[in-house]
Structure formats: structure tokens, C-alpha cells
Task: structure prediction
Amino acid sequence: MASKPRWRSGLENAMALPENKGQMQYQLATVDTSGRPHVRTVGFSSIIEPAEHPHLPVLIGITDVRTPKVTDMRANPYVELCWFLTGSKDQFRISGPVRIIPSPHVESAAQGESTLALDKLSEQGFDWEKKRVAAFDSLPPFMRALWCKPPQGSTIGSYEVANEWLKTLSKSNQLESEEDKQNFELALRNFALLVIDPIHVDWVEAAASPQRRTKFMRNGEDWSEEFVVP
Amino acid sequence: MASKPRWRSGLENAMALPENKGQMQYQLATVDTSGRPHVRTVGFSSIIEPAEHPHLPVLIGITDVRTPKVTDMRANPYVELCWFLTGSKDQFRISGPVRIIPSPHVESAAQGESTLALDKLSEQGFDWEKKRVAAFDSLPPFMRALWCKPPQGSTIGSYEVANEWLKTLSKSNQLESEEDKQNFELALRNFALLVIDPIHVDWVEAAASPQRRTKFMRNGEDWSEEFVVP
Result:
């Protein structure tokens, strides 16, 4: 059985370092419908893999289905992220096909190119809705409330309008009032997973001496790696 | 006379804060010749403007003409950057046409779409070669030496090969041996400026209460701004 690619251990080790605490976000590049690039900060959620396929890890991020980045990814479902963990000076650039996993209550666009890892997960009957709800429930209360705001980037009359928005939102098993439940439903409807199937990874260890840079490429189910000039 | 756009003061103030010290780089998104996005860390150099045109600032970054990002930008001369200054939690996303300013000794590709600010600088006879040499001279000696390495991303036999590369390189007026001079010439030939003419700027002040997000757009020579949902 093929094994876990070395970049995955590198990324997981870097994430676990105390000096990288709180750096659970990366910059994600997309291409819009007119062919222009965009880059935005996205929150990391987890890495999973199909059962018995440790060589096919996928990266799960979180987003809002109402954002322009989702529109970009539906039109051009291939992305690259740059994750610079400043404490340890590890930089990971990861690219591959992307899929958006929205609420089942939201119209789901065609999901783009097939991807080995995501197709394998589907084949194994992976429960994406359970994963989506669990990811939402695991957020801190102030973050969950963000999915109740008007769509990001839409015009408001003044900055102070934001004072009227919901500040915190409980998790699914702690909702008390009818209002809480409605807010939770609204937020969960807007919440989506953004799943990347990595096929190229470029890892720079800038704190090493000499600096190290390694490129990993997946061909079919096999990972190869090479040392390159940093 | 039109005045300096408010985002520029915001960016310059954020850069000057002690809590943002050492954060002089951003993530730059480009589109490659097959239409796929890439995102890489790029070093900031300076902001300049055409004389008597404070409303047309351009951002100067530094790069190596031999890198794939330069190939991307020559094919698709429109970029977006995301600059998250983590100390003050200010995020600037800036997009617009880009131009590469290489050594006059390097074949210069067609420079893409015309841009208001860069055309104005040319019209005023701005000395780009002087600016390029000054930017290179202002780098610390260990950084200048990086432009003598083999091309970034090219394959090497082992990480240790890097131990043989040049460690430091003096500035133009402190070159002593013939070898120093040759190294300086080689590095300066590879060194290029990457100049972005901003036409959209999206500024998030995440530490403000409530959080603020402002979009700035340039139409012709005029900047407009609007408050939007963070």
C-alpha cells in the first residue's frame, strides 16, 4: 500500500509547533470568469484521506457559499494555496483541483473535474454532510456567527452597521430559543467546505541551514519528490 | 489636483507600526499560460508615484527574471496580491496591471497592457534603471547574493549543494576583487522590479471594533471608496 507523502508529515508537524500557534489560515489563489487572478485568506479546517489511501490526503478549508471566491472556483475548479507558517518559516504551496461542498439545501453547481481522492471518498460513501456540520460545530461561537452576516463584500452605509450583527452563535446541541435555531439554520446554510486534492506541493524550509526546498508531484497514485533551488 | 488615496496612507501607516516589523512581503497571485492560478511570496520594495500625481501610486516589488512567476506575468500581465500584516491585523488586497522591469541586458518581453500610472512615469522620463540598481543596492548583502544562485525551482542533487553558493554580495560601490564585480554583474542581470498599478484595493481592518472593510476603485484618475461587509 502506498504511504503518506512526506509533505503531509511536514505540514502536520509545522502546524503542531508552538511557534506557529494561531496560523491556521492560508492564502488561496483562484481565477475568475474573466481569467484574472484573485488571492484571499482562507481558514484551514482539517486533512482527511480515503480509508486505506494515506497517499491521497485532501485539505479541507471553510468558506461561505455567497462569496466571490466560490463563484471563481465553480467556474475554474483548480486552485493554488500559499501557507507561510512564520514561526518555523515553513512555506507550503499546494495546488490541485478543488470542490465546494455546500449545504444540501443550496443549489449545488456542477462540481468540475473529477479528482482521484474525492472520487475515492465518494466511492467509499464518505458522509460529507456530517463532516460539514462537524466542522461548523467545532468553530468558536464568535466565528459561527459570521455566517449570519450579509454577504461578504456587499455595500453597507457605514462601518457601524456591523454593531447590529449577531456576535455569537451556539453549537447545534446548545440552541435554546427559536431565534437561536433559526440563526443556526441560516448560518449552516451559508457554510461550505472547500476541499483541495493536492497534486503539486512545494515545501520551503527557510529556517534550515542550508535552506531546503522540495517539490512533490503526484502522478496517478504515486508521489515523487525532488530537491530544487530555494 | 487629485490627492493620495486613503488606502495608501493606511498601508504606509500599517507598514510603519512596530508590531508589523519584518513583514515586508506579500502573496502574489498570477495566472499561467494554461489559465491556472499560482501564488507566491514576493518582497516589497517601495511605493512611488509620477510627479504631481499622488493619486497614481505604484507598488514596486523585487523578483528574479528567471522565475516562473515572471513567465506568468509576461503572459498575463494582471495580478492580485494579498498582504496580511499580522501585528495590526490589516489585510490589503491590491489588484491591477503589472509590468516587469528587467536589466537592459536581458531580452525584454512585450510589456503588456498600458497602465495610466506607468505610462505617466514613462512620459515624465522616469529612470527605471537607476531605480532598479538602487533597489538592488539597498538589499542586505545576504539577499543580494540570492540572485547569483541557479534558477529557483531547478533540480539539484541534494540540499547540501546550496552550501557552495555565494553567501553575501557587496553593494555596487564596495566591490573589490574581479570576482566580486563579476558576481555583482550576474546578480544584477537577474534582478528585476515587478511594478503593480493598483486599480482595486480591498482593506480589512480586522483589529477595529467593529471590524472595518473598505473597497477602493480607480476609474480613470479618480478613486472612489465604499464600506463593505467584512
Remarks:
- The CA atoms of residues 204 and 213 of chain B lie 4 Å apart.
- The first strand of chain B starts at residue 25 and ends at 31.
- The radius of gyration of chain B is 19 Å.
- The domain at 6-124+191-227 of chain B is CATH 2.30.110.10 (Pnp Oxidase; Chain A).
